[in-house]
Amino acid sequence: MTIQPTGGADSAPLYAPSSEIAENAHADAARYEELYQKSVSDPEGFWAEEGKRLDWIKPFTKVKNTSFDYDNVSIKWFEDGTLNVAANCIDRHLATRGDQTAIIFEPDNPDEAAQHITYKQLHKEVQVFANVLKDMGVDKGDRVVIYLPMIPAAAYAMLACARIGAIHSIVFAGFSPDALADRVNGCDAKVVICSDYAPRGGRNTPLKSNCDKALLRCSDKVKLLVVERTGAQIDWVEGRDYKYEDMAAGVAPDCAPTEVNAEDPLFILYTSGSTGKPKGVVHCSGGYLAYAAMTHQYVFDYQDGDIYWCTADVGWVTGHSYIVYGPLANGATTVMFEGVPTYPDAGRFWAVCEKHKVTQFYTAPTAIRALMGKGPEWVEKYDLSSLRILGSVGEPINPEAWNWYNENVGKGSCPIVDTWWQTETGGILIAPLPGATPTKPGSATKPFFGVQPVILDDKGNELSGATEGVLAIKDSWPGQMRTVWGDHDRFVSTYFEMFKGYYFSGDGCRRDADGYYWITGRVDDVINVSGHRMGTAEVESALVAHETVSEAAVVGYPHDIKGQGIYCYVTLMDGVEATDELRAQLQAWVRQEIGPIAKPDVIQWAPGLPKTRSGKIMRRILRKIAENETDSLGDTSTLADPSVVDDLIANRANA
Ligand code: 6R9
């Protein structure tokens, strides 16, 4: 059985789901239409029903209370219901699937044995972890920062927080001590959880020692809980540091779930915006979990017995919603992979799919492009017949990568779900449903239930039919973020100010004649490097923090594997010599300040930057130069000194 491309309304090929997939899926085309219509014509009724997919301690009577009105932005779902998120992800499955595997842990080193953790074991581990946190003084509403590799303890720690009503904030284990300290301080965390080391791709990141450095910049009340991963040597600060294994041996085995309100925060996740300071995106308990669970079930067509694998890291929102919360709320078996796609070789993903008989595989275009470059032989070595559905997330997937994924990994018979969403949206907003939506390579296709995308012009007018503009959403959905931690005004001004009455996504988008959505990338100063979001301002402020740098401007440029690369224009202090050595130093500096993902790909020395007479850097021009589109620079006459542009073009670095 092969999926045959047939023509859509435009020239893009259209891949219809096979009848076998459509018949067995949670939704076929007719069902999608019916449910979608209901979800937008009667959101109250639709979500009242969907809210029941969770176990409530006190059932909700109010469903939706949301306003996108600029003067009164407020989002509440199921607001008078109470529940416990960990009980929904674990306890309620015990009677029916206690011995089923909840988490398959696949370590970085393929010679190390995988672990199969059942729901019963997960229940035990999470209760003990919760009691350890309580012992350390963590109460309902307190913040806990988690800085862990992709090991089961990361899931235990998240669920332990949820069990006692504490709010977790995960910091990606690839972030630097400075980035970690900013986030610990930003949410005023009581406890930080780390491991001794983080094995990844055969290397070992010293997480404990990173914490030691970070905590020098934090309140001395912050406690550090250290989980053992490798057992290698670490330093110890008496009175501040707690060894998890010792603590766990001394606590009670049972911990009753704490009752929380649907609108109590479940987690904070810091993400980049167009200004320098990351925002603490707040997600709450009830609506988020219902939405994560529902999207996981429908978009991946999750069925009992499936082995679902999302290759993201729990440090990103994809790991929150689609490794831990969504799958576990659905009683699924979810794979946690500690490693990287190319270690020990470029066949690792497929080796893991074969080994665990993975049915749904969800990854990022950057990984696909990297593996594509290694040749199809790495895929062909493995038996991938267990795969049923493939997913993509993080950035637009280019049709070449889509086709390669479809032909080599899916063997032409696995629907590809290209899922568009954001840290802010909590769950998938635009994506095909495997049994319902014919796909087009490069399009995220159609909205999920309850989601009303609109395309606006730059004045905020809704455009109809086939068109292009910015992507906004017309009404709330339960997984939506509620606020920016500690700064509700920033929440309102970032997402609701520019286009009144809508949630503004920050993405550009095209809609074709079939009503399909094609995301064209960010329209703000956010760049997307290997699927990781980064504010150009963050890289700029790291650069100017270096003693030799007087000014810096950073833009994205097309990069074959990463999607976008980081291109920096740097003006040095008077008297500093521009050498290749200094260039390497600055690259290392940014890497150390933010983390390896932020390492500049290109640094071009810029004796001057193109500025308007009021002193604003004209990034549009810098972007064009970085993209090597110097013949379409547009109007440069408003520049204070147009000659700087000629110099930048003449000395353009070869990216
Ligand atoms: C889930 C996640 C969000 C930004 C988003 C957009 C880009 C994500 C995409 C996509 C095209 C897709 N993005 N998925 N662009 N097609 N399927 O990635 O969250 O890290 O917050 O990034 O990523 O630009 O605005 P986050």
From TrEMBL:
<dbReference type="InterPro" id="IPR045851">
    <property type="entry name" value="AMP-bd_C_sf"/>
</dbReference>
<comment type="similarity">
    <text>Belongs to the ATP-dependent AMP-binding enzyme family.</text>
</comment>
<feature type="binding site">
    <location>
        <begin position="394"/>
        <end position="396"/>
    </location>
    <ligand>
        <name>ATP</name>
    </ligand>
</feature>
<dbReference type="InterPro" id="IPR000873">
    <property type="entry name" value="AMP-dep_synth/lig_dom"/>
</dbReference>
<feature type="domain" description="AMP-dependent synthetase/ligase">
    <location>
        <begin position="91"/>
        <end position="476"/>
    </location>
</feature>
<feature type="modified residue" description="N6-acetyllysine">
    <location>
        <position position="616"/>
    </location>
</feature>
<keyword id="KW-0436">Ligase</keyword>
<feature type="binding site">
    <location>
        <position position="544"/>
    </location>
    <ligand>
        <name>Mg(2+)</name>
    </ligand>
</feature>
<dbReference type="GO" id="GO:0016208">
    <property type="term" value="F:AMP binding"/>
</dbReference>
<keyword id="KW-0479">Metal-binding</keyword>
<dbReference type="GO" id="GO:0005829">
    <property type="term" value="C:cytosol"/>
</dbReference>
<feature type="binding site">
    <location>
        <begin position="418"/>
        <end position="423"/>
    </location>
    <ligand>
        <name>ATP</name>
    </ligand>
</feature>
<feature type="domain" description="AMP-binding enzyme C-terminal">
    <location>
        <begin position="538"/>
        <end position="616"/>
    </location>
</feature>
<feature type="domain" description="Acetyl-coenzyme A synthetase N-terminal">
    <location>
        <begin position="32"/>
        <end position="89"/>
    </location>
</feature>
<feature type="binding site">
    <location>
        <position position="549"/>
    </location>
    <ligand>
        <name>Mg(2+)</name>
    </ligand>
</feature>
<dbReference type="GO" id="GO:0046872">
    <property type="term" value="F:metal ion binding"/>
</dbReference>
<keyword id="KW-0460">Magnesium</keyword>
<comment type="function">
    <text>Catalyzes the conversion of acetate into acetyl-CoA (AcCoA), an essential intermediate at the junction of anabolic and catabolic pathways. AcsA undergoes a two-step reaction. In the first half reaction, AcsA combines acetate with ATP to form acetyl-adenylate (AcAMP) intermediate. In the second half reaction, it can then transfer the acetyl group from AcAMP to the sulfhydryl group of CoA, forming the product AcCoA.</text>
</comment>
<dbReference type="GO" id="GO:0003987">
    <property type="term" value="F:acetate-CoA ligase activity"/>
</dbReference>
<dbReference type="InterPro" id="IPR032387">
    <property type="entry name" value="ACAS_N"/>
</dbReference>
<feature type="binding site">
    <location>
        <position position="546"/>
    </location>
    <ligand>
        <name>Mg(2+)</name>
    </ligand>
</feature>
<feature type="binding site">
    <location>
        <position position="530"/>
    </location>
    <ligand>
        <name>CoA</name>
    </ligand>
</feature>
<dbReference type="InterPro" id="IPR011904">
    <property type="entry name" value="Ac_CoA_lig"/>
</dbReference>
<dbReference type="Pfam" id="PF00501">
    <property type="entry name" value="AMP-binding"/>
</dbReference>
<dbReference type="InterPro" id="IPR020845">
    <property type="entry name" value="AMP-binding_CS"/>
</dbReference>
<feature type="binding site">
    <location>
        <position position="507"/>
    </location>
    <ligand>
        <name>ATP</name>
    </ligand>
</feature>
<dbReference type="Pfam" id="PF13193">
    <property type="entry name" value="AMP-binding_C"/>
</dbReference>
<dbReference type="InterPro" id="IPR042099">
    <property type="entry name" value="ANL_N_sf"/>
</dbReference>
<feature type="binding site">
    <location>
        <begin position="200"/>
        <end position="203"/>
    </location>
    <ligand>
        <name>CoA</name>
    </ligand>
</feature>
<feature type="binding site">
    <location>
        <position position="318"/>
    </location>
    <ligand>
        <name>CoA</name>
    </ligand>
</feature>
<dbReference type="GO" id="GO:0005524">
    <property type="term" value="F:ATP binding"/>
</dbReference>
<keyword id="KW-0007">Acetylation</keyword>
<protein>
    <recommendedName>
        <fullName>Acetyl-coenzyme A synthetase</fullName>
        <ecNumber>6.2.1.1</ecNumber>
    </recommendedName>
</protein>
<dbReference type="InterPro" id="IPR025110">
    <property type="entry name" value="AMP-bd_C"/>
</dbReference>
<dbReference type="Pfam" id="PF16177">
    <property type="entry name" value="ACAS_N"/>
</dbReference>
<keyword id="KW-0547">Nucleotide-binding</keyword>
<dbReference type="GO" id="GO:0019427">
    <property type="term" value="P:acetyl-CoA biosynthetic process from acetate"/>
</dbReference>
<feature type="binding site">
    <location>
        <position position="591"/>
    </location>
    <ligand>
        <name>CoA</name>
    </ligand>
</feature>
<keyword id="KW-0067">ATP-binding</keyword>
<feature type="binding site">
    <location>
        <position position="533"/>
    </location>
    <ligand>
        <name>ATP</name>
    </ligand>
</feature>
<feature type="binding site">
    <location>
        <position position="522"/>
    </location>
    <ligand>
        <name>ATP</name>
    </ligand>
</feature>
